[in-house]
TrEMBL record:
Record Pfam families: Nitroreductase
Domain Nitroreductase: 8-185
Keyword Zinc: no
Protein name per its UniProtKB record: Nitroreductase
Reported cofactor(s): FMN
InterPro entries: Nitroreductase, Nitroreductase-like
């Protein structure tokens, strides 16, 4: 029941204490949870960028819908997906996988050929929709790991992607931002949502069983 207790503990924090910083050890664990997330075909088509530098956060603030949270949180995690699938990216992942498993190179050629035929024929926009969905799995696991560590967090889609992408020059990395995660410790007196009852859809309405 520990995971459920952790998830019941957490909430999307609305105000952070700028004087409190999350340890590097905790941040590393939160990011590691994202790295271990399952992804379609094991391609891991995204990266997590960790922003602690206050000057850089101040620059990013202009693209945020909740600027105080971005400014005052300890770290901003950016979940950024590949701008599209390419043959080179697919091969790099599977070459690494086969090497790590001690298998002969080309062991998965038939599978990677299928992936290339499917993804490379798609427009980049369609590719990115699929890639973006993978990042949300990682975001969810990072939120859960933060909760287990009793580190406060906020998942964020309310930001201007173009601002984040430009400031971090993500195009040079072949990436596009998808979502953010604010990490830190709540400024409890100003975190207006904290005293409110946590509300979820009733289980009877949420679960549909086919027996």
């Amino acid at each position: 029941m520990a995971l459920l207790e952790d998830l019941n503990w957490r909430h999307a924090v609305k105000a952070y204490d700028a004087t409190k910083k999350v340890s590097k050890e905790a941040i590393d664990k939160i990011v590691e949870a994202a790295r271990l997330a399952p992804t379609s075909s094991g391609l891991q088509p995204f990266q997590v960028l960790v922003v602690e530098n206050q000057d850089l956060k101040e620059k990013l603030v202009k693209g945020a819908l909740n600027p105080e949270c971005m400014r005052d949180c300890s770290h901003v995690l950016i979940f950024a997906g590949w701008d599209r699938y390419t043959a080179e990216r697919i091969d790099k992942v599977y070459d690494y996988t086969t090497a790590e498993r001690g298998l002969p190179q080309g062991r998965f050629n038939s599978y990677t050929d299928m992936l290339k035929k499917m993804y490379l024929a798609q427009p980049a926009e369609e590719n990115f929709v699929h890639i973006a969905r993978q990042t949300y799995i990682a975001l969810g696991l990072s939120l859960a790991q933060a909760a287990e560590l009793k580190v406060d967090s906020t998942p964020v889609e309310g930001f201007d992607n173009s601002v984040v992408d430009e400031i971090l020059a993500l195009d040079k990395l072949g990436l596009k931002s998808v979502s953010l995660m604010y990490v830190g410790y709540a400024d409890t007196p100003n975190d207006w949502i904290a005293p409110m009852k946590k509300v979820r859809i009733p289980k009877a309405e949420f679960v549909v069983e086919f027996k």
